[in-house]
Amino acid sequence: MPPSSGEVWGGGPPGPAQRGDPGGRAPGPAQRGDPGGRAPGPAQRGDPGGRPPRPARPRAGRRRAWPALRTSARQPPDIVRGPGTTVHAQIEDWLAGQIAAGALVPGDRLPTEQDLAAWFGVSRMTLRHALAELARRGLVTRTVGRHGGTFVAAPKLEQDLTTLAGFSEQLRRHGMVAGARVLTASQRPAGPAAGAALHIGEGDPVYEVRRIRLADGRPIVLERSLFPADRFAGMLECRLDGSLYELLEVRYGLRPHRARESLEPVTAGVREAEALEVAQGDPLMLVERTAYARSGEPLEFARDLFRGDRTRVVVWTSELAGDM
């Protein structure tokens, strides 16, 4: 008997009860003795065609969206496989784009490696490579253990070098609480580099202040600042756990107006790693700075080490006023 219109048929092979029957059916134990050779089973009762509908098979090649990945994308991106590109880099860029767009927010937990690899249609090794690069860039954090996993990291602090502002002011602009932990504060003779930067003689006294700067209670910068002692007499008697630029302005009537800063990528040594709570060899950004008063007098020579996983340097540029 042909199927009625609108009936859904499966495309699977015959089951054990169907083998050997030319018409695709074989009488089961409950059917024996039925003159018509058929008796409705539990799944067949009420079916006008006498046959149970089978669920349709999913289309080949379709990948389901993984609901644990909280983005607006219902399907994974198209992965290009060919020369000149790598699969893990495409996954890294796509996830980084979702984080930048706010589709994945800090604290979001990504699906397991197995589920996420299946969603992208790649091997777990390829996915791990992509996640490792995201972790290296500070976009995700990866933990092990019962409550471990891959989590979207807090956004990096943007250190804007276009305008001269102290660390405390920079954090206030981002709605973060600035703090400082003073490691040492002492007087020492100026070395060749400090003497040249501060326009004093080598061996002249300078105040050295070494601090760990905190953002919302977490270490982010290891500071080492040198000030000419003759210009800022009694500085070491003041509180040094706040903004040093505000201290210079309030107590001495001087505030840095401009600065020359140079950037150099370095890696953390044993002491730097301990102070900043990172692993030895982790990337850091060294910012060397000489700050000047409006009159042109040098006020500070500093070497600051920023955590590479917590900070991003931003510089605005514009067209030069004239030909150089």
Question: What does this molecule look like?
Answer:
- By secondary structure, the protein is an alpha+beta fold.
- It is built from seven helices and ten strands.
- It has a six-stranded antiparallel sheet. A two-stranded antiparallel sheet has the order 1-2. Strands 3-10 form a two-stranded parallel sheet.
- Strand 1 and strand 2 (149-152) form a beta hairpin.
- Helix 1 (87-100) packs across helix 3 (124-136) and helix 2 (113-120) crosses helix 3.
- The N and C termini lie far apart (91 Å).
- The model is unreliable at 1-24, 29-37 and 55-68 (pLDDT under 50).
Task: Give me the secondary-structure topology.
Layout lengths: L86 H14 L12 H8 L3 H13 L3 E4 L5 E4 L4 E4 L6 H7 L4 E12 L2 H7 L6 E11 L2 E11 L15 H9 L5 E10 L2 H7 L6 E10 L5 E10 L3 E4 L10
Parallel strand pairs: 3-10
Antiparallel strand pairs: 1-2, 4-5, 5-6, 6-9, 7-8, 8-9
What is the number of helices? 7
Strand order within the widest beta sheet? 4-5-6-9-8-7
Based on CA atoms alone, the radius of gyration comes out at: 34 Å
Low-confidence parts, pLDDT < 50 over ≥5 residues?
1-24, 29-37, 55-68
Count of DSSP E strands? 10
Looking at the structure, what is the overall shape? elongated
Determine the fraction of residues in helical runs and give it as a percent range.
10-25%
Helix vs. strand class: alpha+beta
* Percentage of β-strand residues: 15-25%
Mean pLDDT: 79
Largest sheet geometry: 6 strands, antiparallel
Q: What is the string of SSEs from the N terminus onward? A: HHHEEEHEHEEHEHEEE
Q: Gap between N and C termini, in Å?
A: 91 Å
